[in-house]
Amino acid sequence: MVLILVALFVLPIVASTTTDIIVKTAPNHDVMFSFYDPIQDELINRTKSVSSSDETASAVFENNGGEVDIIVFISKFGEKVLTEEFSGQETGGELVYELYPDDYIPLSEQIPKEPEVVIEEQNLTEEQNLTEEIIISEENEDTPLTGLSTSGGNKTLIPSVVYYVIGLVLITGIVIFLVSKMVMRRKLSSEPREIKITKLSEIHKESVTLSREIEEAERKIREAQASINKLKNDEKIKIAEAKMRKDKEELEALKRGDY
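Below the sequence we write its predicted structure tokens.
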């Protein structure tokens, strides 16, 4: 009796077979595993996984051994990417499939980018400037600030007093220019202005001339308006004559019985 009970517990464990299915595909894709009975063509189980950053999605299938048909459906945001069917697969152990989209390059085939070597030109420039400043400061310490030539070379240094003198001359010239300009303005404003007196006869003459010009302009406007009216009348006459000819032709046609 004990042996029978042990057999009942042990036999299912021995007969059960576990299969690890691994699909290599692009990261962050939905992978659906469907398992079918190859003889009865019935769905046994279905499971879903998401591919990780290392391009793998996995599922575990358990049965009592034998073969199984596997359909792998890969999608992205609900849109189908690809579907592949694997018929008559032996269960037990591990099954690995590579199912990459057409527009995707696997990590194993991607060429790693070489790190760019950037030369720090800014630091190099700062070091050069610092070196130049040190050299200049040393030269200034060894050179006396006089109006004579230096002991170490042929350069002549200008004393700072010269700069003050030049600046004072420029300021004095500007002040003299402004003062003279103000004096000229006051002189011109103090002189009496010339007052032009127009005679009454000249005003009358200008008024008569202006009236004649206005009358001449009005006459030209009236002549232009008359020309426009004449053109309009000529056009109306042409239209009336054309209408009259048309009416006359229709009357002649009625008389002939053409209508």
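The first strand starts at residue 17 and ends at 24.
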